[in-house]
Amino acid sequence: MGSQDNSALASNAFLTDKSAKVFVAGHRGLVGAAIVRKLTQLGFTNLILRSHAELDLTRQSDVEAFFASEKPEYVIVAAAKVGGIHANNTYPADFIGINLQIQTNVIDSAYRNGTKKLLFLGSSCIYPKFAPQPIPEDALLTGPLEPTNEWYAIAKIAGIKMCQAYRIQYKWDAISGMPTNLYGPHDNFHPENSHVLPALMRRFHEAKINGAKEVVVWGTGSPLREFLHVDDLADAVVFMMEKYSGLEHLNVGSGKEVTIKELAELMKEAVGFEGDLVWDTTKPDGTPRKLMDSSKLASIGWTPKISLRDGLVDTYKWYLENYKQ
Amino acid sequence: MGSQDNSALASNAFLADKSAKVFVAGHRGLVGAAIVRKLTQLGFTNLILRSHAELDLTRQSDVEAFFASEKPEYVIVAAAKVGGIHANNTYPADFIGINLQIQTNVIDSAYRNGTKKLLFLGSSCIYPKFAPQPIPEDALLTGPLEPTNEWYAIAKIAGIKMCQAYRIQYKWDAISGMPTNLYGPHDNFHPENSHVLPALMRRFHEAKINGANEVVVWGTGSPLREFLHVDDLADAVVFMMEKYSGLEHLNVGSGKEVTIKELAELMKEVVGFEGALVWDTTKPDGTPRKLMDSSKLASIGWTPKISLKDGLVDTYKWYLENYKQ
Lengths: 325, 325
Hints:
The structure is a homodimer.
Chain A: E1 22-25, H1 30-42, E2 47-48, H2 60-70, E3 74-77, H3 85-90, H4 92-112, E4 117-121, H5 150-170, E5 173-179, E6 181-183, H6 196-210, E7 214-218, E8 224-229, H7 230-243, E9 250-252, E10 257-259, H8 260-271, E11 276-280, E12 289-290, H9 295-299, H10 308-322
Parallel strand pairs in A: 1-2, 1-3, 3-4, 4-5, 5-9, 6-8, 7-11, 8-12
Antiparallel strand pairs in A: 8-10
Helix pairs in contact in A: 1-7, 2-4, 4-5, 6-8, 8-10
GO molecular function (chain B): GDP-L-fucose synthase activity
Enzyme class (chain B): oxidoreductase
Pathway (chain B): Nucleotide-sugar biosynthesis; GDP-L-fucose biosynthesis via de novo pathway; GDP-L-fucose from GDP-alpha-D-mannose: step 2/2
């Protein structure tokens, strides 16, 4: 699984035939919706999309029948059971079981029905809790996982390994991409279980609307985090479908870190909250640093385009126009 | 997942009702056949057994229908796609995919149909390649796997994690046992892909039958290995079903190491080959040492009963009476 070599570069047909059938599993989620936007923008005319009610990906026979009938040429697996720390801790069986079922069904049926290429998406939580920072791809399975999301992580690791195994045994083009922390339209802004970026956006927005004097944020603001706008991820997905055919999974990050303090200050500005930003330093900070090493993807020619500032403005605009409380 | 505590001890009903339905998945394999022998010996009268032709465990709907119809009270998962190094390297998709399907189907259906207790079996290859020796349970996921069996290993690790996740979310009694190298009746004696112990047995037997002068064995004979007779494993399975209800998987080993040289000399004696045993020291030895730490299981009261010598005698007797080339 060592160094990058040119045999991993696909001179693929992905962008050549925009009428090819592309199945985007999970098209209603943060990631899937962004991929559909991107493909539509690029002129793809034959996107195969199924809601959960139309196609339950945990049902093996239904997935097999769907693939036998549709035979999509390309498959992007953005469907998963996702959630925050509390959900993972409370429903571990769902987080490992449902994700294993979805992945195993889709990967196997795609192979058996002539899909030319499949991209499997995971997340940075596949890596060991104490991975070196920035986190390179080969940190995978070198140490214990973060216990709060080990159920989801094990499922995603199994998905990466399934793609590799199918590539080796069948010489089939399956690749995996592992994005960093994502944000953007269609994110989860729920007051209790959203991630830090959308949570901050919602809190500053509500403080502005309510005329509050201040917003209090936990910790010192010093931890470093990486964020990627989901439209950049969609762009990377298209790039990988066109250009990458390797065994190893690829990290998809922005490579740019910000402190939580910088994030909060940018967010305050993007939302237009004019009160005070106050730090409750009696509360915990969390992991000091989390940054993916995306140099492999950069070395084959992809880097993100959306700055954090522009991305926050774009996301807040979406929030104002679309988000129903 | 720390220290052993008494809440992990089940005062179970397993041995109390020998008419309870016990589904032994994989009853025709080395492990499953031994478990069936043991349960039959103990007086169990209601063993639910299905051959692959009768029930394909990779088919979700078939497994669901089977469980809905039979509703076994106890389930022992000894069914798996297994094989040696060559098979794992050539068919990695089968080794990860089939095992994930079997496990996910059986564990989920067992839970949903009222099974009281499930035992999931794996193997020592779940541990990191460079795990400390003897290998304790908490070595799991602390380092990279042995590449030649990582596909099977990932599937088995996912199975352990599924059992843990179902226990946490549903308070359901699922446990996992990880045996060391097993041998005994119904083992694989194939000349090319069997493990070292049955391979040696077959080679000494054929040398005896053919009147050969010598048997040449690769390496120096110095590597240390641990072996457990499969009837001891079956005994441990019953013990765990009766006595163990913990979150952590348990190692099931003999705790006794022998050098390959000691194994070969014992085997020569048991088989009755009177020619020379010669070591080809130009050939590789393999891993210097592989021993599981089974002290946790020993601390709750189980140790093996079958010495290596007695076990080899028993196995050779079976070989002479049953093995068809």
